[in-house]
Prior knowledge:
Elements: E1 4-7, E2 10-13, E3 17-18, H1 32-44, E4 49-51, H2 60-69, E5 77-82, E6 84-85, E7 89-90, H3 94-108, E8 113-118, H4 127-139, E9 143-149, H5 153-162, E10 165-169, H6 183-190, E11 193-194, H7 230-249, H8 254-265, H9 278-285, H10 294-306, H11 316-319
Parallel strand pairs: 3-4, 4-5, 5-8, 8-9, 9-10, 10-11
Antiparallel strand pairs: 1-2, 6-7
Helix pairs in contact: 1-2, 2-3, 3-4, 4-5, 5-6, 7-8, 7-10
Amino acid sequence: xxxxxxxxxxxxxAIGMGCMGLSxxxxxxxSTQEGIALIRKAVDQGVTFFDTAEAYGPYSNxxxxxxxxxxxxxxxxxxxxxxMISDIGINSRPENIRKVCxxxxxxxxxxxxxxxxxxxxxxxxxxxxVAGTIQDLVNKGKVKHFGLSQxxxxxxxxxxxxxxxxxxxxxxxLWTREPERDVLPTCKELGIGFVPWGPLGTGxxxxxxxxxxxxxxxxxxxxxxPRFTREAMIANMPLVDKIADLAQRKQASSAQIALAWLLxxxxxxxPVPGIDQEQYLYDNIASADFVLNREDLQEIxxxxxxxxxxxxxxxxxxxxxxxx
Length: 324
């Protein structure tokens, strides 16, 4: 059975499932039937932690997750997000948080949201007001836990003083290590869980993407990411090749190495890789039982120090929304 981990007081499977790609952002969307079947297979394999957001679709991913998990709602943890939709912008005004919460509850076909993240920090709304609004929703039984995404250590501290932050979801992987500087130490100090999004480098670290891979701008966000230009992919391929070499020696996949590395950093880390194919589901969840020894971790550090990562991790339009 899948190992468990704690995000603050919230117990979840050691590997969660990022559901975004089933509906939005990473190529052709799956059919509703395909998406439901894959989510339920994940539950059968011991995954209890499912990540979605109003922005994914928008809205359609929450509907899919709600439909898939409705029969087993009491067995799973659902995380969703408020406050950022591409064609609307950032909005964490208290009245909007309450409105999004009610709408998300309907789409998810549930009475409560286990973990409600602020999708991006709103510079126009004090984080204390956001935390206070979540506290009110918790008191009303609509939300169980409060989360932040792409938040700085300073913002996390300010929010946590008003109402406990259960989890922080920032981008973190072998080739995106900014959280190690301030955010991870803050989470450790305050007893907050950390949920890496993009733990497989939005697919690049798996080795499935090659320099001649192309991304459809109409369906795939990576078409706008500087790291996914042909030039950047060529420059960054040595990282993938060296990880693949280690994986082969360890009789593992590159994805398992990347996820096991994250799990080895802290016991309060729970990655949510995007899973849109059954083969990726089984491959990803196997990483929960895959242990990297001290020599493996040292080799990975040497690999990382030998490769200069080229390209920004996100588009300018998305980077500007980060509170980092």
